[in-house]
TrEMBL record:
<keyword id="KW-0859">Xylose metabolism</keyword>
<keyword id="KW-0808">Transferase</keyword>
<dbReference type="InterPro" id="IPR000600">
    <property type="entry name" value="ROK"/>
</dbReference>
<dbReference type="Pfam" id="PF00480">
    <property type="entry name" value="ROK"/>
</dbReference>
<dbReference type="GO" id="GO:0016301">
    <property type="term" value="F:kinase activity"/>
</dbReference>
<keyword id="KW-0119">Carbohydrate metabolism</keyword>
<comment type="function">
    <text>Transcriptional repressor of xylose-utilizing enzymes.</text>
</comment>
<dbReference type="InterPro" id="IPR036388">
    <property type="entry name" value="WH-like_DNA-bd_sf"/>
</dbReference>
<keyword id="KW-0418">Kinase</keyword>
<comment type="similarity">
    <text>Belongs to the ROK (NagC/XylR) family.</text>
</comment>
<protein>
    <submittedName>
        <fullName>Sugar kinase of the NBD/HSP70 family, may contain an N-terminal HTH domain</fullName>
    </submittedName>
</protein>
<dbReference type="InterPro" id="IPR036390">
    <property type="entry name" value="WH_DNA-bd_sf"/>
</dbReference>
<dbReference type="GO" id="GO:0042732">
    <property type="term" value="P:D-xylose metabolic process"/>
</dbReference>
<dbReference type="InterPro" id="IPR043129">
    <property type="entry name" value="ATPase_NBD"/>
</dbReference>
Amino acid sequence: MNVFDSKHNNKKKIYHYIREKGLATKQDIAYNLQLSLPTVAQKLEDLVVRGLVGAECKVANKAGGRNPVAYTYVKDAKVAVGLDITKRHIKSVIIDLDGNIIKYVYRRRLYQRNDGYLKTLGETVEKIIDSIGLSRDKVIGVGIAVPGLIDFEKQCVVRGTVIDNTGMSREDFSTYIQYPTKLIHDSNASGFCEIWMSSELRNAFYISLCNSVGGTVLIDNEVYMGDGLYSGEVGHLNLVTDGMQCYCGQKGCADAYLNAERLADYTNRDLGMFFLRLEQGDGVLKEIWDEYLEYLAVLIHDIRMMFGSTIIVGGYVGIFIKDYMEVLCEKVNRKNPFGEDAAGYIMPCNNNTEAVATGAALYFVKEFIEAI
Ligand SMILES: [Zn+2]
């Protein structure tokens, strides 16, 4: 490690210490991180000047004498914006450096591949920032989550069939957005959000059951991208030989059986209504749901055999899965050759419908915190 790294690391260590404790004095920091007081003082000054750490309050000195200054963590020193673009809506969020949602806006808007739509994206970002009277210089970036196969390095959509976005780049989506942007695969965004929120999880497979089915491999708190574009694309695992038509052109893909729209189509495209009527005992829906869970169990079993990790059931359907975990686990257990109990490795997602937008914004938060 060179001298620069070491100095830089001290600042980061101090920042993370205060972030974790919420509040700390110079003496606490020096003692616990084994740094000299002048070093701590110098790094703190820099963090205070940048507004990342506050120095307004004092704590009582138990030993008597002057009360030392308590340095506090400023979680909204910076914020990030996340956009979740789908066929029928644009969801936007503003999150703080802890990943808390400060503001969420849902807007119904049909996706269209034209300049008018891109303008709408720009307006959506400006509106959500204005709605809370936020100063523009606080915004570290805008994460844009879209369906489709994304080349994260090249920041473009290689193949977009869920919405017509093949060939579109980060620059295209950002035409009317005046902040740094990133283009992110929607299920990677929600998977990343999930693991960020569960501090005890380091490895997991996240299944996104939205209007298309995707997945994310999370290894050591990072999204594993593989060597190509297809890591985690479990929506196109073949569940049924020569089965139902998938939008990808193949037959029998998991997506054809497990996309959320398939359920919502029974209740006028309202997934919440599907689960409400299911709860009320609708016989037809009960059969459909049981079949759905059967297919989901196959998918979960295959993933478990492949990765042996925790499997998080997320996406639009994941929001409702909590109440059906017992029956889902039973179905998965019937397939397990090792007598494992699925209740020990299947988890319903924590997050709700804002997980995609939040996860997209979190890419900026993570980068910002790591660069301090
Ligand atoms: Zn497919």
